[in-house]
């Protein structure tokens, strides 16, 4: 299966800030690659290079077999781009926004109008299509922006954090739209900070930090790298935490994680239910009261914490990171 997106050794620097430090990416035709990472990891910089909005200092990139540096116009004709900020004209109606995009692509007016109406219906915006976009909710604007990326029916879509700032309902609506696009044969590069989003949508995942890929694979493969199940305990008395932590450490893979509240403990294990029973028996023999207990598989949050040393939602953008500036 041919790669519709391929980047090799991408480097981008902004004075003393290294946004990309030799990033490699590959997205096969008809697949979804999710790029995970905190703000400042280099996600948006990579997107801008692939979308021909920035030039890499080093490395090469191709989209649909076309070199982004040598033939940027050819790349632009084959991609749809939806950035972190909905690129809609607030004073035009939803229909006029989409019709304008079609005309900018060189589509005849009648065909552009027909395509605009089709997309308004597809994205559940037909009832609002003749209203100014400034009256739209955040979720409606994001759907309109994504519809704009599809006007020319491009074979490759690049979505840069398409659900950032949306409420849960609007985010799930966007997930449905994205699934439909992939089912119709689109190739998709998706950047996100929402680990659940990558888990739900992606065929493969690349985790990047400080401008470099630090892990890649399917969601299940990445979770397997982090270890097997997790034993989670919530103690009744935080004064018993150290004893409970020592018991867990005897069976844990890696360090026992302690929550800030002083009562919750998490340990990666490989023994499953029998090991959980053994731990509970030890806790009972030491008269350690447990308020709650569970055995679960690792999540992508666990993967992220293991790889980067911090939770995704706790990551902070460096003040001088250039990729925070809107395109």
TrEMBL record:
Cited Gene3D superfamilies: P-loop containing nucleotide triphosphate hydrolases
Q: What's its membrane topology?
A: Peripheral membrane protein
The UniProt keyword set, sorted, is:
Antibiotic resistance, ATP-binding, Cell membrane, Membrane, Nucleotide-binding, Translocase, Transport
> By its UniProt entry, which InterPro entries does this protein fall under?
AAA+_ATPase, ABC_transporter-like_ATP-bd, ABC_transporter-like_CS, ABC_transporter_ATP-binding, DrrA, DrrA1/2-like_C, P-loop_NTPase
Q: Where in the cell is it found?
A: Cell membrane
**One MF term in the entry's GO annotations:** ATP binding
Domain (ABC transporter) spans 5-235
Give the matching PROSITE patterns.
ABC_TRANSPORTER_1, ABC_TRANSPORTER_2
**Domain of life, per lineage:** Bacteria
Family as reported in the entry's similarity comment: Belongs to the ABC transporter superfamily. Drug exporter-1 (DrugE1) (TC 3.A.1.105) family.
Q: Which PANTHER family does the entry mention?
A: ABC TRANSPORTER ATP-BINDING PROTEIN, DOXORUBICIN RESISTANCE ATP-BINDING PROTEIN DRRA
Protein name in the entry = ATP-binding cassette domain-containing protein
Q: What's the source species for this entry?
A: Aeromicrobium wangtongii
Q: Organism classification, top ranks?
A: Bacteria, Bacillati, Actinomycetota, Actinomycetes, Propionibacteriales
């Amino acid at each position: 299966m041919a790669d519709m997106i391929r980047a090799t050794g991408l480097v981008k620097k902004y004075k003393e800030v290294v946004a990309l430090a030799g990033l490699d990416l590959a997205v096969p035709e008809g697949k979804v690659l999710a790029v995970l990472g905190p703000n400042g990891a280099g996600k948006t910089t990579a997107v801008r290079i692939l979308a021909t909005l920035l030039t890499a200092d080093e490395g090469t990139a191709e989209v649909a077999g076309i070199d982004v540096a040598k033939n940027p116009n050819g790349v632009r004709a084959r991609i749809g781009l939806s950035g972190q900020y909905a690129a809609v004209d607030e004073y035009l109606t939803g229909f006029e926004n989409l019709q304008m995009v079609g005309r900018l692509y060189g589509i005849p007016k009648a065909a552009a109008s027909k395509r605009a109406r089709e997309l308004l219906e597809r994205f559940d915006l037909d009832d609002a299509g003749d209203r100014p976009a400034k009256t739209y909710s955040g979720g409606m604007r994001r759907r309109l922006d994504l519809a704009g990326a599809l006007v020319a029916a491009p074979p490759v879509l690049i979505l840069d954090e398409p659900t950032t700032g949306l409420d849960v309902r609007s985010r799930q609506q966007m997930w449905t739209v994205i699934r439909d696009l992939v089912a119709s044969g689109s190739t998709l590069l998706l950047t996100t900070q929402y680990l659940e989003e990558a888990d739900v949508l992606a065929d493969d995942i690349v985790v990047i930090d400080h401008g470099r890929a630090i892990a890649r694979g399917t969601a299940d493969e990445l979770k397997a790298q982090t270890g097997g199940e997790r034993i989670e305990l919530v103690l009744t008395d935080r004064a018993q935490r150290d004893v409970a932590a020592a018991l867990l450490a005897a069976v844990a893979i890696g360090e026992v994680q302690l929550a800030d509240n002083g009562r919750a403990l998490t340990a990666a294990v490989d023994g499953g239910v029998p090991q959980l029973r053994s731990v509970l028996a030890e806790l009972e023999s030491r008269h350690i009261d447990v308020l709650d207990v569970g055995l679960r598989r690792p999540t992508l949050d666990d993967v992220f914490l293991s790889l980067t040393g911090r939770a995704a939602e706790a990551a902070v953008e460096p003040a001088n990171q250039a990729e925070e500036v809107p395109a």
